[in-house]
């Protein structure tokens, strides 16, 4: 967020930040609010339960960028995604290298692609 803020500071754009806590109802409300405000673009962490709102944004012509995740059904949307699996694997290997034996994984309640990839890396390394 700080990196995006610095990038926006060099422009005439003023970002509006909304935090949905992975709640699809709140996310829909925030996204529709962006459309009603006539924001010039939307950067969003996509939630799989909000696909109809993303379609509305695309149909409206407002540029949409996904950050952190991508949705396979939205090939036309640009995404800035990091390698969650490699990061989790590196973290696990580090903890093991310093002698940790009881390592928990949190994050399986929300089935995001990145979360599932981190879980796959955790499971693979822990075996």
Provide structural commentary.
This protein has five helices and three strands; from the N terminus they run ααβαββαα. The longest helix is centred in the N-terminal third of the chain and has 14 residues, at 24-37. The chain has helices spanning 2-9, 24-37, 51-60, 84-97, 113-126, and strands at 42-44, 64-67, 78-80. Helix 3 (51-60) links the parallel strand 1 (42-44) and strand 2 (64-67). Helices cover 47% and strands 8% of the residues. Strands 1-2-3 form a three-stranded parallel beta sheet, covered by helices on one side. With 127 residues, the chain is mainly α.
Task: Provide the fold topology.
Blueprint: H1 2-9, H2 24-37, E1 42-44, H3 51-60, E2 64-67, E3 78-80, H4 84-97, H5 113-126
Helix pairs in contact: 2-3, 4-5
Task: State the gist of this model.
It contains five helices and three strands; from the N terminus they run H-H-E-H-E-E-H-H.
Radius of gyration: 17 Å
Low-confidence stretches: none
Compute the average pLDDT: 89
Element order: H for helix, E for strand: HHEHEEHH
Percentage of residues assigned to helices = 40-55%
Largest sheet strand order: 1-2-3
- Helix tally equals 5
């Amino acid at each position: 967020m700080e990196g995006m803020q610095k990038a926006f500071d060099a422009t005439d754009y003023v970002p509006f930040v909304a935090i949905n806590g992975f709640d699809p109802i709140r996310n829909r409300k925030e996204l529709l609010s962006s459309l009603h405000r006539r924001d010039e673009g939307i950067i969003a962490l996509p939630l799989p339960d909000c696909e109809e709102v993303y379609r509305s944004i695309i149909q409206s012509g407002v540029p949409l960028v996904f950050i952190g995740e991508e949705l396979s059904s939205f090939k036309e949307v640009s995404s800035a995604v990091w390698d969650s699996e490699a990061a989790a694997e590196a973290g696990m290997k580090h903890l093991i290298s310093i002698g940790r034996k009881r390592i928990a994984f949190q994050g399986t309640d929300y089935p995001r692609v990145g979360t599932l990839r981190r879980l796959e890396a955790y499971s693979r390394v822990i075996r």
